Amino acid sequence: MPLTPDQQAEIDAARSTPRQTLRAVSEGMEARLYHAHPVLDHGFVRVIDYMGDDAAICQAARVSYGRGTKAVSNDEGLIRYLMRHWHSTPFEMCEVKLHVKLPVFVARQWIRHRTANVNEYSARYSILDREFYIPEPDALNAQSVVNNQGRGEALSGEEAARVLDWLKADAGRAYDHYEAMISQEGQQGLARELARMNLPANIYTQWYWKVDLHNLFHFLRLRADAHAQYEIRVYAEAICEMVRDWVPAAYGAFEDYRLGGAVLSAKGLACVKRMIAGEEVTQETSGMSKGEWREFMGVVG
Q1: Which residue in 68, 111, 162, 206 is deepest, having the highest Cβ count within 10 Å?
Q2: Which residue is catalytic, options 130, 223, 274, 294?
Q3: What are phi and psi of 133, to 5 degrees?
Q4: pLDDT of residue 68
Q5: Domain extents in the chain
Q6: What is the rounded distance in angstroms from the CA atom of residue 21 to the CA atom of residue 150?
């Protein structure tokens, strides 16, 4: 169950008592506030709070004294200019705070983005729930033969069934021992901060994650990419939908220039110019390594 009854009651209470405000409001994000978007089998992402909107980005860029000093079309053009030329500071004026429930191994990838404020559920003080990420059968893949950190074809038949059985059995057994170690019935009980070390990396944790829009875009550019690991990519894709509602003009520019765009090396750009001029270019004549050429061809087709 992604949300506990207590969490759902807290959400319902917060949404039932709206308050008037003078600060910038994004109608799209207001509709998202507190609602939990399910991710994976037990996870979710929900917006706790946010600051700023598209107009706030433009206001910071112009250092103006008020909102609405320019037409919406001018604001959108400015935002696209800022994104196109890699200006970051105006986007840093917007912030969002998310509540995320995710498997520990996904959290270890996520925390590598060190440009956010994080507070994680503490297993030193609290007892973790018996909730583990168990992949769907079509998400069980073999090791990629071309990418040391990627997946290949999906497992099938008896092998897939055996892997799923092991994942479920090992997770359940580890949690049984965790409960037995911390129990104080007929024994002292091991400290929670020690007992947690026996839990597997697919158990769920939770945290509050607060980040500005510039660094959020950087996170999404990497983690919403088709090459990102599936389990973190689905969280990034859920956040993309939230950001689209929050700052539609900024997200549109991000989608165009970052998610849908590409960056070429000097060698790659030179090869494109040669191709446009009608020259046949191969990996051997490109000056690129095989890996570089494969990635280049993935961009230009």
Answers
A1: 206
A2: 223
A3: -80, 120
A4: 54
A5: 5-133+202-259, 135-201, 266-300
A6: 47
Contact (CB, 8 A) for 177 and 153:
no
The residue type at 125: Y
Asked whether 127 and 182 are in contact (CB, 8 A), the reply is yes
The reply, when asked if residue 262 is annotated as ligand binding, is: no
Beta partners for residue 96, in sequence order? 50, 211
Residue 35 annotated as binding site: no
**Residue 67, pLDDT above cutoff 60:** no
Identity of the residue numbered 38:
P
**Locus of tokens 């994650």:** 209
User: What sign for the dihedral angle of Cα 157, 158, 163, 169?
Assistant: positive
Identify the pLDDT of residue 63: 85
At the topology level of CATH, where does 5-133+202-259 sit?
Gyrase A; domain 2 (3.30.1360)
Write the single-letter amino acid at 77. Answer: G
Active site residue 192: no
